Amino acid sequence: MKIALLSVTKSGLKISKQLKMKLSQDPRIFQVDIFHKNVKETLRRIFDDYDAIIGIMAMGIMVRSICGLLSDKRRDPAIIVMDDAGKHVISLISGHLGGANDLTLEIANLTSARPVITTSTDVHGCMGIDALAKKYYWKIKNTDKIVKFNRALLDGAKIIIESPENLEYLFNDQLFRKSYMIKKGEDKIIKAILDKDEIKIKPCRLVAGVGTKKGINEEKIIEGLKKALSFLDLPLERLDIIATGEMKKGEKGIINASRILKKPLKFVDLNDLRLEDTHSKSSFVEDKFGVGSVCEAAALHVAGRGSRLILRKTSYDGIAIAVAVSREKVF
Amino acid sequence: MKIALLSVTKSGLKISKQLKMKLSQDPRIFQVDIFHKNVKETLRRIFDDYDAIIGIMAMGIMVRSICGLLSDKRRDPAIIVMDDAGKHVISLISGHLGGANDLTLEIANLTSARPVITTSTDVHGCMGIDALAKKYYWKIKNTDKIVKFNRALLDGAKIIIESPENLEYLFNDQLFRKSYMIKKGEDKIIKAILDKDEIKIKPCRLVAGVGTKKGINEEKIIEGLKKALSFLDLPLERLDIIATGEMKKGEKGIINASRILKKPLKFVDLNDLRLEDTHSKSSFVEDKFGVGSVCEAAALHVAGRGSRLILRKTSYDGIAIAVAVSREKVF
């Protein structure tokens, strides 16, 4: 996730700087840039370059400045406003699909600001179909039906999730249990069903790229994968594939972990790894293999063209893990 | 003040109805209308007809819907959003000049919602020059300097208010004391001075229209005026003129009250009263004088062309009082 912080006052800039430091610790966040003053012009310039834009300023300035820039709830970045005394942090635009609500909660956690979320499902303690899809990296085909499904759900209706795959792990999610049921389906894709209406859903491919020192055993690797997924607030079951570089072909730990977890393991050729543009760069690995980060490159390669990292390289005890998701925009 | 309430969900509509009932008790509020669904189209239709628009809905819906309608902070209505569980009420647009912040606080008071105000002066416990002007019904000529003055004030600067009139009563206002000083001036208008910069200010004319039964004494009338002004969160000193109908020329109470308070008293001809379009209509008064409300008509007439009621007829113990303010938009 790439985040822009915008401020107009001295105290706003101070908050921006503190927030940048804190947000940069989050392995899901790859870049945090600070902009000061010239709000309107800056927004026009950077609007499409960031996943989230956080304005430390009065609501009115932000609203008036983004008006000409908003296009579509499926494409617009998350827009968040925090007052420049840090009292409230408010999710403004793209609450669900753009992740503004989650980021608002994270910022509230990192600071002493109170989160303000106004989307109807959330204020009534429900998980809308768009929030569900966002959380588990599912693509929704017919987004025009989201409002109808969410409204029914607020009225107490249960939505059936019909899937060819085992999605039992979703029941560990309290908000899921409240509004959804699961049914085994025959079709290849997932369907959310409400009476005679349905929403078509495709899970994106979630790939964990793994790099290890020699001789790391499977328990440690499984533990590392669990930790990595938990950063994304996901259970290990959601993972689709484990990927690593061809130089790890002899590593029993990875091979056994893949077998135990029943997740396919892909070894990526060094030449393919070298083609990927990684976020993390280790000069040691770079010198040895010509790759910035083996785990990131492997994850990106297996997640395919148009994929993106959602967890940058994180290291635990001799293991480095990154997570990539396949192209999300096209159904 | 005319207020529009907009909702999209069932629970939003329920909140609208409760809010309408509560807001209608406020004598500063003359009309509260409820609209449900079709947010974008409704807003386009009603945007210029209301002083304040309150959306009981997710922030994103409101922001996306007003984008094409906003023009200028001196003209746009106050825009407020409340989530449809009534947890937060958020001042969005026209916080100061449009009064959105004050209305947000009032709604929070009337409900269990927490107010969210993001304007920099307010979150830092200061009263900006625009908020000061709004509160005391002053017109600001050079609004382009507001930001500069407010920023200085946030940095701890003191702004000098130079006035030909005695404005000592402002010192009862704690927020005023914090950031302003008063100086006796020679010029006819008020000036806010910061170093070599100045903002020109003209107070609007504030007129209390009074109607009484026969023989009401001055103490009661003064008490009534105090109460009326306190609804506007103003001290009695801010009042410019007392107005009543010519049929009250023999009423000692009003005449003495005017003398004691040192506020000029104007008697308005019946024919002039009849020309005013009052908000309140008493069929008794209508039958007797051909006027809907003597106090409202007198206040409006003396406040002049383009004036408006800011407090509709309120009755206390045989006295009816309304307050009008002279034209605010033109300096």
From TrEMBL, chains A, B:
Sequence ranges assigned to domain CobE/GbiG C-terminal in this UniProt record: 206-324
Signal peptide: none
Residue ranges constituting the Cobalamin synthesis G N-terminal domain according to the UniProt record: 42-122
InterPro entries: CbiG_hydrolase (IPR052553), CbiG_N (IPR021744), CobE/GbiG_C (IPR002750), CobE/GbiG_C_sf (IPR036518), GbiG_N_sf (IPR038029)
Superkingdom of the organism of origin: Archaea
The name this protein goes by in its record: Cobalamin biosynthesis protein
Species of the source: Methanothermobacter tenebrarum
Lineage: Archaea, Methanobacteriati, Methanobacteriota, Methanomada group, Methanobacteria
